[in-house]
Design brief:
Layout (H helix, E strand, L loop, with lengths): L1 H19 L17 E4 L3 E2 L3 E4 L1 E3 L11 E7 L5 H8 L7 E8 L4 E2 L5 E2 L1 E5 L8 E2 L4 E10 L6 E11 L9 E9 L15 H16 L5 E4 L1 H9 L3 H14 L3 E3 L8 H6 L3 H18 L4 E3 L2 E4 L5 H9 L4 E4 L8 E2 L8 E2 L8 E4 L5 H4 L5 H21 L8 E5 L5 H15 L4 E3 L14 E3 L12 H15 L8 H12 L7 H17 L1 E4 L3 E4 L3 E10 L5 E8 L4 E2 L3 E6 L3 E10 L4 E10 L6 E12 L4 H37 L1
Parallel strand pairs: 2-12, 9-10, 13-14, 13-22, 13-23, 15-16, 17-18, 18-21, 20-24, 26-33
Antiparallel strand pairs: 1-4, 3-9, 5-6, 5-11, 7-8, 11-12, 19-24, 25-27, 27-31, 28-30, 28-32, 29-31, 32-33
Helix pairs in contact: 2-10, 3-5, 4-5, 4-7, 10-11, 12-13, 12-14, 13-14
Keywords: Membrane, Transmembrane, Transmembrane helix
């Protein structure tokens, strides 16, 4: 019994000691996952021997001991992009070719407590305590913190560096990040457009990027965002707009539709002309708000799957440079690697260049580490892709690598910034604006897009077509500076976009405004007009009850009356009545119908329903006048003859009586 009691007491004492004793970093659970060291800054392009400075977040669960070790393990050079993906995902661990270690007590820290180790890197054969990288290529480096007692890894991370010898770099490959800003429907159905907070933050990040990086990049910004900024009454938005415009004036921007439009769907629905109208609206919007900014109107950034009909539509819209992003290259096949510039299949497309984006970057999908580390990973993978193309004897002049990365969040923005700056300093790569024109011909590699779907949902086609017809007609009633010209076009732009679930609401709101504008015009005229002479006038009164001037076409028609200038364009001042006078000539008397039609200046869309009035002509015709005058002359002659006879008889009677 005493032995059992002593055993229980001993067990309790051990448990208490385990709870109360301080835990060293080396006493971690073996099975727990190893935390990742956060990479905040690092050298990327290694051109010569250097004391490289890293900025790291140790990310350990407990405090570090000064005797713990910070290790840098240099792995073998990456041979190809397929190998890169396997290594970056942790599926393959390459062999270690060199290493460098330093005690934690000798590692400096910044004001935020981040580690700032200095790692000597030499570009010759190893002769000292340093990492030796003598051959050109992309190298993985594992950074890890090791417990000095147990030798267990406390935290670790895999990153990459790019070793290059300037004198040995002969290729010159074109590469460019694609900065694309899109937004949900910022335009409301009442025509008011407002910037949402998420889009505003994206604009701020783009301005910051363009301000910190002066090299050429490829830019696409939705005209809807530009409009929301340009029309905002908020001082902060107005300043953002000015800052963005100033940055864009040093570069160019690809054209775009006001709201997202899929050329394949528009072609499949038979709405080719509507798509071209949306292209013109987007370009006009960019030119309106961004004077002094070069608009690359021949460049189209495709984000949806393309097919041959879509390519034909883009060609008809004047597009000669297609940049494939996101899902645009689904089902597409190329004769050469996708990073080689190409043209769509078909002799009619030999002058259209196609630049495909480099897809499936490992660093983009990674969320386990810092945006900076993932940016270095993207840059390293792009460089390995370029090395693969050079090794395959591809013509460097035809290599065009487009890197399409989202920048919607702060991490995505930082990733793009890090990758772009790393690539801009990489020997053998030149950053260009991919939206600029590229020379291609029938000798260039061809790209074939998959066939169009067999069926499209055509339920919305009639409403879009009717809205377009009515919009074009009613817009011709407005003055050139009337803001409704833009508001109505924007409503149709959003309403025609297939990306919105409530697109029909925009079509309905637009047609309601168009109908109200036409109904503000009324005509006042008597049911019967009396014309008492051969040449008379027909008068009507047209009232414009709206707050803006409106222009209409007024047309008079009569089978019996000869009208002077029966069809005319008239501007109706706002809130007033305008009298319209038309000269009329007739040869006969009677009542004749006169039709009055008020329509839009263009399109002849009815503004006021057809009005029929009666013109009552009481004037005598020409032959009747001749007969009447002749009869009057005869009557006068008879009267004169009768009067003379009477006077003669009177004189004769007087003479007889005197005798």
């Amino acid at each position: 019994m005493k032995r059992l009691l002593r055993l229980v007491l001993a067990t309790c004492a051990l448990a208490t000691a385990a709870i109360s004793s301080p835990v060293h970093a080396g006493q971690k659970e073996i099975d727990s996952p190893v935390p990742e060291i956060g990479v905040l800054a690092q050298p990327f392009n290694i051109l010569t021997s250097v004391n490289a400075r890293f900025v790291l977040d140790a990310n350990v669960r407990n405090s570090l001991d000064g005797k713990d070790t910070l290790q840098f393990l240099l792995h073998r050079r990456i041979a190809a992009r397929d190998s890169f993906a396997s290594i970056a995902k942790g599926e393959v661990v390459p062999g270690v070719s060199d290493s460098f270690s330093v005690a934690m007590s000798r590692v400096g820290r910044d004001y935020a407590g981040h580690l700032e180790p200095i790692v000597p890197i030499i570009t010759t054969e190893k002769t000292s305590s340093a990492l030796s990288i003598s051959q050109d290529g992309v190298y993985p480096i594992t950074i890890q913190i090791t417990d000095f007692q147990t030798k267990k890894i406390l935290s670790s991370v895999l990153t990459f560096v790019n070793r290059r010898t300037l004198s040995a770099t002969t290729q010159n490959l074109s590469i460019s990040p694609l900065l694309r800003l899109t937004a949900p429907a910022l335009l409301k159905t009442d025509g008011i457009i407002e910037l949402d907070d998420a889009t505003r933050e994206s604009v701020k990040r783009m301005i910051a990027f363009l301000g910190s990086f002066t090299g050429p990049v490829t830019i696409s910004i939705s005209p809807q965002i530009i409009t929301a900024l340009g029309e905002s009454a908020l001082p902060t938005d107005q300043q953002l707009f000015l800052d963005l415009r100033n940055q864009l004036r040093r570069r160019s921007i690809a054209t775009d539709t006001f709201a997202p439009c899929d050329p394949a769907e528009f072609a499949g629905l038979g709405l080719q002309q509507e798509f071209i109208s949306q292209m013109k609206l987007g370009e006009a919007t960019l030119n309106r708000f961004l004077p002094g900014v070069t608009i690359q109107r021949n460049a189209w950034v495709a984000t949806e799957r393309l097919d041959p009909d879509a390519v034909a539509l883009l060609r008809d819209a004047g597009i000669t440079n297609i940049l494939l992003s996101d899902n645009a290259s689904i089902d597409a096949t190329t004769e050469l690697p996708s990073s080689i510039i190409s043209h769509p299949v078909g002799a009619e497309n030999k002058n259209i260049s196609v630049v495909s984006h480099v897809s499936d970057f490992v660093g983009v999908s990674s969320t386990n580490n810092t945006a900076e580390k993932n940016g270095y990973t993207v840059a390293a993978e792009a460089i390995v892709q370029g090395d693969d193309l050079v090794s395959a004897a591809m013509n460097p002049a035809l290599v065009h690598m487009l890197i399409s990365l989202p920048i919607g969040s702060i991490d995505q923005f930082q990733l793009m910034t890090t990758a772009t700056k790393a690539l801009s300093n990489a020997p053998g790569f030149t950053l260009i604006d991919m939206a600029a024109s590229h020379a291609v011909d029938n000798t260039t590699s061809a790209i074939s897009f998959g066939p169009a779907p067999d069926k499209w949902n055509t339920s919305r086609v009639p409403s879009i077509q009717s809205a377009r017809t009515e919009l074009n007609a009613v817009t011709s009633m407005l003055s050139e500076d009337d803001a409704r010209r833009y508001t109505w076009a924007y409503l149709l732009g959003v309403g025609a976009s297939p990306s919105l679930e409530n697109a029909n609401a925009y079509i309905s709101a637009l047609r309601k405004q168009l109908r109200a504008t036409r109904q503000s015009v009324t005509v006042t005229t008597p049911a019967v007009l009396n014309l008492s002479s051969r040449n008379g006038s027909i008068r009507i009164q047209i009232r414009n009850g709206s707050a803006e001037n409106l222009t209409v076409r007024v047309r008079f028609n009569s089978a019996k009356l000869s009208l002077v200038n029966p069809s005319r364009i008239i501007t109706l001042p706002s809130g007033s009545t305008t009298e319209v006078v038309v000269s009329a000539t007739t040869r006969t008397s009677g009542q004749f119908p006169v039709s009055v039609w008020v329509a839009t200046p263009q399109g002849n869309l009815e503004v006021v329903p057809l009005i029929t009035i009666r013109a009552k002509v009481t004037a005598i015709a020409g032959f009747g006048q001749f007969v009447s005058i002749s009869f009057l002359l005869i009557l006068l002659a008879w009267w004169w003859s009768h009067r003379r006879s009477a006077r003669r008889d009177q004189r004769e009677a007087t003479t007889v009586s005197e005798q």
